[in-house]
Amino acid sequence: MGRDPHYDVLFEPVAIGPVTARNRFYQVPHCNGMGVQYPSAMAAMRGIKAEGGWAVICTEECDFHVTGDVTPAIEARLWSEQDIPIMARMTEAVHRHGALAGCELVYGGPAGHNRQSREIPMAPSAMPVFGSEPGNARAMDKTDIKNFRRWHRQAALRARDAGFDIVYVYAGHNLCLMQHFISRRFNFRTDEYGGGIENRTRLMREVIEDTKEAVGDTMAVAVRFAVDELAGDQGITADGDGAAVVEILAELPDLWDVNVSEWPNDSQTARFAEEGFQEAFIGFVKSKTSKPVVGVGRYTSADRMVSLVNKGVLDMIGAARPSIADPFLPKKIEEGRIEDIRECIGCNICVSGDFMFMPMRCTQNPTKGEEWRRGWHPERIAPKESDSSVLIVGAGPAGLECARALGERGYPVSLAEAGTELGGHINTVSLLPGLASWARVRDYRVGQIQNMPGVEVFLDSRLDAEHVREFGFDHVVLATGSSWVGDGIGETHRRAIPGADQDHVLTPDDVIGGAAVSGPVIIFDDDYYFMASVLAEKLRGEGQDVIYVTPAADVATWTHNTMEQGRVQTRLLERGVAVRTAKSLASIGKGDAELACVHTDRRETVAAGSVVLVTMRVPDDSLYHELTGDQAALDAAGIRSVTRIGDCLAPGLIAAAVYGGHKYARELDAPAPIDNVPFRREILELSNDWPVL
Ligand code: ADP
Ligand code: SF4
Known about the structure:
Blueprint: E1 14-16, E2 19-21, E3 25-27, H1 39-51, E4 56-63, E5 76-77, H2 84-95, E6 100-106, E7 122-123, E8 127-128, E9 136-139, H3 142-161, E10 166-171, H4 177-182, H5 197-215, E11 220-228, H6 241-249, E12 255-260, H7 263-266, H8 279-282, E13 293-295, H9 302-310, E14 316-319, H10 321-325, H11 329-334, H12 349-355, E15 390-393, H13 397-409, E16 413-416, H14 426-429, H15 440-450, E17 455-458, H16 465-471, E18 475-478, E19 482-484, E20 505-506, H17 508-512, E21 521-525, H18 531-541, E22 546-549, H19 565-574, E23 578-580, E24 583-588, E25 592-597, E26 603-607, E27 610-614, E28 617-619, H20 622-628, H21 631-637, E29 641-644, H22 654-667
Parallel strand pairs: 3-4, 3-14, 4-5, 4-6, 6-10, 7-9, 10-11, 11-12, 12-13, 13-14, 15-16, 15-18, 16-17, 18-29, 20-27, 21-22, 21-27, 22-23
Antiparallel strand pairs: 1-2, 8-9, 19-28, 24-25, 25-26
Helix pairs in contact: 1-2, 3-5, 5-6, 13-15, 13-22
């Protein structure tokens, strides 16, 4: 099927200075937790996006001098010639599929702590380094500025030598020096680099000019600029300094890549921002420049993309997360396969990888980060190796993905679900405040399975061991999910909380299932991710007095890793939820509960009509134990394997459940790994310069 001509505009080429992008799909720079640490993995991940039809594929941040070192973040690097082959691997992968490669040079300034190099960070004015870390960045003098310009210029040439087509001058995310020069929050200089906006833009202008002069017409020079810092008059605003900078530099770069700062503002989750939320900020840019403009906003709707171009908001559709969730998004639009797009759900699990210094993973795309090391392609999977049939019990994210991927391989699959709908816990979680887009995990897979004749679905089919044995499948996969515990056991309380066995003590499953609550409601969060705060929002929205209690120092503390924590805490406070941090739940009484300070064990009694315990989930694995407890019966039924996947094996992130389902499907009938490591590793070369002392 060909594409709808309505989308033709998205496939027009765009000239970016001396180079030409084949269409309007632009993968903006994004971190991935692989970078120079796992270079082939990073290159393969980028190359697959080029294969998927993106016209431009950029790096993550690429630090280029020891004084602007962004360690321990795992990023790209061009400190010296030594780094060129690593980056060249990426450009080669991108070029192989006809896309342009862009390099986002970054200089951390006060945001880069120089933890590897131990150099003193530099900033426009002396100030504490960011991140509540002891120590200051020093103010740059004129020699430092000259040096900085020289280093940037040298780095641009190294990027060219690594094969890049586009090099960035970067002033965004509050992570780089040139933004700090521009922002009145950070620049208190009294020389020609401080004061009015012309002066504060001077360094940026000089660096663009230096870069253009250095690379000539061998590469395009892009600017990435945060037009608004969402810091009010204190910082850059779209109708103030942001607009002024775009006006001053208007025709200087070959492309404007614009967004809001800082990263948690730019990459907001679906819980806090709609698709396209940045339009209000960046909408003005095209009126001030004739150069192509790229913007982001978690765009997954092809119609929305067309309208952005037609309305003259953007020339190129920028994407990080949508390209992570579906590296083949452009190809699918091009081929008229809109329904095959695996839409980003806006959860920022991808971002969490970067915060935790690990290769990126994605809720929707289980192959993310596994392209090179496991050889997993997002759109291709090996055909079946046998005629084995598979029964999957449970149609949550794990069961659905397992069925989808096995179906793609050509195995005959039966998917039995106790409920009357496919989706498992996604069906209820996506009804909670702000999480509607999480239903995409279900919808994509249900859509795919519907078109697979080899996958048979049985709803309203709660299976017991006898049923399973009767059917006589070769392999049985249990994806039966998990349940929240009702006794309060979790990370903090290793024994049941006294009083947890009363009727007014509820689990998240109870609340989601519509159990009656009476206020004030204590929600005890020993889980630290989204559930407790979302339930607090829900119950508060229903008019309940809610007291959120957690042993952690702040609300939903793990959501620092998804860059949501600040917004979660603000939302609860603004909605009138009482927040009690650093407290455990010592006991639950008849109309009250006893909280204990986690530092002093000092106790206090708080009134509570209901208590909701959000502590941990346990696998619903009784069927597994029943089946595997009777090997003779399995043998008699001809069942060769029984395997748990997803939450039934160990409750965790939705991303882990999807991954577990996918992994099972990839590994069915595959040879076992030769040694103990089930994936390829890249061992960095040892230096010959040894011994040294
Ligand atoms: P995961 O996140 O691991 O995919 P979920 O909790 O989302 O797990 O989904 C588990 C699904 O398994 C639920 O839809 C549940 O109804 C279903 N299920 C549980 N036990 C059985 C069973 N014995 N037979 C059929 N379906 C079951
Ligand atoms: Fe989107 Fe979540 Fe995947 Fe990130 S992890 S790309 S936010 S679906």
